Amino acid sequence: ITMKLTTGRYTIILSAQTLLLIIDWGINVSSLLTRENNAIMLILFIVQDACLILALSALLLTFFSTYVFQTGLVYLLYERFRTTLLVCMAYFVLTTIVHIWSLVARWNNLKHSWTTPFLIVFILQRFLATIYYYYYKRAALRISDPRFYEDIELEQNKIHQLNGQATQ
């Protein structure tokens, strides 16, 4: 069974991915405004973490739909999208650290002042957020390249690589 990524399906997935990025950005902005209520912050953080997991899942779903993946040439996708995957994972980990740290520090103390280490981690998370938005959106658009869904050039490249390895 092959899962071909049609234009309609790609449009739906790209729209969902864009919505997840907008939600993440909105929570990053609004979490600073809702610091007075820990319960609201907790809900926003859970939603943000869920959106990050869904965004990565949607990106992986598009990878799995490619001809490249289905023919077992996973390393080609990994080479092309390695940075994106690493940035996604790093952003998720750093975001989760910021969420846990801020909730633990503030839960019983609404007048909590930010420590220098927390401020550094917070700034790193916000900086990494911009990098994450760039790489994620770029990968979501690059995966629409028809070469990932056709076997024309891939078979020639695979044969060329095998011939190159055989002569060495």
TrEMBL record:
Pfam families: TMEM138
GO cellular component, one term: vacuolar membrane
Keywords: Cell projection, Cilium, Cilium biogenesis/degradation, Glycoprotein, Membrane, Transmembrane, Transmembrane helix, Vacuole
Keyword GTP-binding included in the entry's annotation: no
Subcellular location: Cell projection, Cilium; Vacuole membrane
Membrane topology: Multi-pass membrane protein
Role, per record: Required for ciliogenesis.
Family: Belongs to the TMEM138 family.
Protein name: Transmembrane protein 138
